[in-house]
């Protein structure tokens, strides 16, 4: 947690005021037993009810003042803990957005969600307890011991024996509980993953009637988490009976030996009551300390997971240039590019090609051949291990992210829409787009027909993930979002796979007419989608099997010919 202290710098005042107020409240709490002893020894013993009422008023005043200081402390703790959590979440989200896809793949979405929610919540609780109880609880233990000594040094030996015994019990129980808290957080990650998969893939689960098997899978991980939590609970459950036994024995000893002192006149009845109250305060403070150990142990585990995210550095370092000054260079150029996701086999190997301004590049190949991997290197979602990717003659690594990605419009393989409206989704592509720009993008992407039929048009609500649109409609809207900024490079990553052949053909015709001058990179499994491209790249198991036009590849590239004949008749391949 010490590494996260930078997020507390804005709350120095609350960090000072809060504990001081709690300390003052603890002082008042230590004074109360002495006032009570005075009431018993003076007011009750002599029957002076006026004195009892006056001293009772003093106790109420102490309680009221203590409450006031406690509320100030509580507010300070709330301000700091909530502000601390908010700052960490904002910083973590900002940091996550700097990471490349490689780091995001490694960390995993479910784990990142758990870290941004549950783990930061644990840290917020720890900060609140730090302000409210970390000073108060030890002060009460030490203060109660000192106050007991001021009353009677002999009976205070009982306190000096009981307090270490309580500390030993707390240490034994907590030291055995601590290792389980890390495993609880890991189990939450796994449970979050299964929950996310079930919610995202609910339709698939129902289609294959896998509800029971998924329920069993969820129950297994849930039971694993439950067993760990129960184990911790059983260990923690030992605290109360053992500590109460020690405290009650100590109280019995105080009453037993104190009774003799009262009989001889060395102590008063009120002082015995005060000693019992101080022993009770020590018990309650020790229980608070035990809870603090649990809270800070959880927080330490969570802090490690949060710091792991902050310690993760992106493998894709942003450049500093905003524009290339190289004239007449290809818009896109791959020079002997090789890329692997991990330490294993290359997903792409020795890829070289060029795409000039205004050209349409088709990319085709079997499943897993590396098509999407190739186009992900253009906007620098990943960096290649070997070779270089050039945009307008300059290495993509030299551009700032914003200047590079402003040149590129992308319609991803998985059509992703965000909750809001159709218009708000299109404005992602160009925040300054006019109504005419929006209409143009809808017409080119073949979305205008179905959008115009909606009662509220482009203001129609989009549910999370675009679930209220069909797959083909989502794809067309993502294409509209990609072209609305008139990018220099347009990447369509199999983004027309859900379209019927007529709509696909109309889309290709519109793109050819309306986006002339744009370098288009079209990834598709369909020969009909890429056959009229200026240049077609044929990928086979991560290698470039052929480059050329449809006619050239059909004659000279066996991989391409095989793909064509699997989709088209012999006559269709020649027309």
Structural notes for this entry:
The structure is a single chain. By secondary structure, this protein is α/β, with parallel strands linked by helices. The chain has three domains: 2-311, ABC transporter transmembrane region fold, CATH 1.20.1560; 317-407 and 488-575, 3-Layer(aba) Sandwich (Rossmann fold); 415-486, P-loop containing nucleotide triphosphate hydrolases (Rossmann fold, 3-Layer(aba) Sandwich). Helix content is 63%, strand content 10%. It has helices at 12-46, 49-96, 101-107, 109-132, 136-151, 156-200, 202-207, 211-237, 239-264, 269-311, 371-376, 401-406, 422-426, 435-444, 448-452, 471-483, 501-514, 527-530, 550-556, 558-567, 570-574, and strands at residues 332-339, 348-355, 360-365, 386-391, 394-395, 408-411, 420-421, 461-462, 489-493, 519-523, 535-540, 543-548. A hairpin with a 2-residue loop joins strand 11 and strand 12. Helix 5 (136-151) runs antiparallel to helix 10 (269-311), helix 6 runs antiparallel to helix 8 (211-237) and helix 6 packs antiparallel against helix 9 (239-264). The model has no long low-confidence stretch (mean pLDDT 86).
Concise synopsis of the structure shown:
With 575 residues, the chain is of the alpha/beta class.
Features:
alpha/beta; ABC transporter transmembrane region fold; 21 helices; six-stranded mixed beta sheet; Rossmann fold; 575 residues
Task: Kindly state the percentage of residues in helix.
Answer: 55-70%
Report the principal-axis shape.
elongated
Q: Report the CATH topology name of the largest domain.
A: ABC transporter transmembrane region fold
What portion of the residues fall into strands of 2 or more residues? Answer: 5-15%
The counted number of beta strands is 12
What's the average pLDDT?
86
The main sheet orders its strands as 6-9-10-3-11-12
CATH level 4 superfamily of the largest domain: ABC transporter type 1, transmembrane domain
Q: What structural category characterises the helix and strand content?
A: alpha/beta
CATH class descriptor of the largest domain: Mainly Alpha
Provide the low-confidence segments as ranges: none
| Named CATH architecture of the largest domain | Up-down Bundle
Tell me about the biggest sheet?
Answer: 6 strands, mixed
The N- to C-terminal Cα distance equals 68 Å
Number of helical segments with 4 or more residues: 21
Task: Give the C-alpha Rg.
Answer: 35 Å
- How many domains make up the coordinates? 3
